Amino acid sequence: MADQKDLDFSYTLIDKVFRYCFGEAKDFSSALYNGDFSMSLEEAQRKKHEFIAGNLNIGKESRVLDMGCGWGPFLKYVKEIGAEGIGVTLSRGQADACRKNGFNVHLMDCRKMSHENFGRFDAITSIEAFEAFCSKEEWQEGKQDEVYESFFKIVFDLLPVGGRFYLQTGTFGKNMFDPDNVDINADKNSDAYIAAFMLKQFPGHWLPWGADQILTDAKPYFKLISMSNGRLDYVETQRQWREKFRKFSLEKLLFYLSFFPSYITSKDLRNRIYLFGVSANKICFEREIMDHFRFVFEKISAR
20 to 30 Å CA-CA from 94: which of 24, 100, 105, 195? Predict the structure, then answer.
């Protein structure tokens, strides 16, 4: 799993510029367009929140856990509809921003959660945090299924029978190739380079091998209620993100300039930072090196 240092690189590093670009408590995960790309990013994110709450039967006084809560967008929505939201993140920047905005957020590894120290929840979400739960090294050691099964067991123990879990995550897609051929020194237009660049941007992250692996690892604990593909939604989400990242403001300019000395002297930073230049994630989705899914699960029994 990505550790705190990895997640601080991926998220705490951009905390200020993210909030300069998007405002407080905004999403850093794919929106829900369902083919209607005339919607604004904000409208599509709201549609996603409504979709999640509706499918998880979240209402007034529901107790909701958001595992990997980011800057708190779903916690904000949950609060607006009268439910109680609790968030968990390993990014210090995200946790500090969430607490500043009045959300109940814990800076901790979600794998350490249990009903003994948190009680049970009516509904649980994990919105693109799943991508950080298994590292490449764990995959190489043949532990990926074990990692995912252990996570589903944690979620299972935190829900009552009939409680629902929403999982939104990227996966490797139909055009993913042998990971041994991923190469940051390859031609910059090649799949090998784009995939390597993406992995550099998100250290400690590794993806499931499609929806089937997720369904198999969840099956001992949950029944599937619904599944949908969000690859094209993510392409549009990232297109709109890039526009917001590039829109001029003095605060952003000063932030970018603060990186300039390190950006010039550190090849590793140039390979990893994604505030500038190419969006490797967007290209991976466009080329179907990566895919994207939304799952709604329901706890099937007390086991």
Answer: 195
Q: Work out the pLDDT band at 285, boundaries 50, 70, 90.
A: very high
3-state helix, strand, coil in the chain (%, to 5): 50, 15, 35
Enclosing domain of residue 10: 4-299
pLDDT at residue 258 in the model:
73
Paired sense of beta strands 290-299 and 104-107, if any: unpaired
Q: How far apart are the first and last CA of the chain?
A: 27
User: Residue 44 sits in a domain of what CATH number?
Assistant: 3.40.50.150
Per the CB < 8 A criterion, the answer to whether 126 and 218 are in contact is no
Q: Is the dihedral of CA 99, 103, 106, 110 positive or negative?
A: negative
Q: Which two tokens stand for residue 9?
A: 């690189």
246, exposed or middle or buried, with CB in 10 Å at 0-12, 13-18, 19+? exposed
What is the tally of structural domains in the chain? Answer: 1
Q: What is the pTM of this model?
A: 0.89
3-state secondary structure of 227: strand
The torsion angles phi and psi of 233, rounded to 5 degrees, stand at -60, -40
